[in-house]
Amino acid sequence: MFKVSSIFATAVLSVASFSAIADEVNIYTTREPGLIQPLLDEFTKDTGIKANTVFVKDGLTERVSSEGANSPADVLMTVDIGRLLDVVDAGLTQEIVSPELEEHVPAAFKDPNKHWYALSLRDRIVYVSKDLDLTEMTYEDLADPKYKGKLCSRSGQHPYNTSLIAAKIAHDGVEAAEEWLKGLKNNLARKAAGGDREGARDILAGICDVAIGNAYYVGRMKNAEPGTDQYQWGEAINVIRPTFENSKSKGTHANITGAAIAKNAPNPENALKLLDFLISEKGQSMYAKSNYEYPVRAGVELDPVVASFGDLVIDDLHILEIAKHRQEASELVDKVGYDQ
């Protein structure tokens, strides 16, 4: 089942240290603050507004809800659409009025009611051993018995995978998605666990030949210091951007990082300035070149490693059409025993 921990992660900064003054903005984020720190530092340099971060690994909705009107949170930032919708559906956000966000975020990656916007894209791809003569495949191919004992994957309950499964449900229905997930389960080379980079590690070790992972991890691995473990993992793999067989656009599934402004934000003007910065050409370029994520703003230059993967064609489904099936996706993971 789709589970949310009620235990709050330890804040990076004490909430007591926050205050509603003109030169601050307070960010609650489900991604490690260090991964966006270069962007926040540049924002502070440009605006003079200090960006405070609190890392909330699980239970973001519960935390903000329990803090109520006294919450110091200005911006709620998540690494997947599911957690973003959780805070919106709980009534913890406010309408965002930003011509910049409206202009530069594609319709498929923003809220029609203007309570959230995507800031970057994370395409869900396949890492392939360089020993394989393989340049294209569908997501459905991963369930082919020819890959029995050759597939590596992180937990099916991780939001990156429940989003992918939800997309399969949206395209083909629950029954077809269940059969597909059974095929993936049967092809696992090891227990579904760890992170995406461990898939590349295990391809290098000969444990599996293919692995499901996000593209930006490949950017990190291939840009790592030569000779390090991560660099060697990255050098052991090629990248394929799969498609769903029934996708009209023949596109690749992508989740998002995104953000909303908290309903009781003490610094709403600064929150808006931050979001406008993150969608600016400078902010989007830093997402692309510091985090190796795919920018949502058109015309932004990519990191050379990510650019080498070729043009990204996104699956034609609206992100909300995918997100509404995430509960069913989570239930299927348990039903087929994917993580067992």
UniProtKB/TrEMBL annotation:
UniProt binding sites for Fe cation: Y216, Y217
Cited SUPFAM superfamilies: Periplasmic binding protein-like II
Secretion signal, residue range per the UniProt entry: 1-22
GO MF assignments: metal ion binding
Keywords: Iron, Metal-binding, Signal
Source taxon at top rank: Bacteria
Record keyword Zinc present: no
Coiled-coil regions listed: none
Database matches in Pfam families: SBP_bac_1
One term under GO cellular component: outer membrane-bounded periplasmic space
Family: Belongs to the bacterial solute-binding protein 1 family.
Protein name: Extracellular solute-binding protein
Provenance organism: Oligella ureolytica
Gene name of the record: idiA
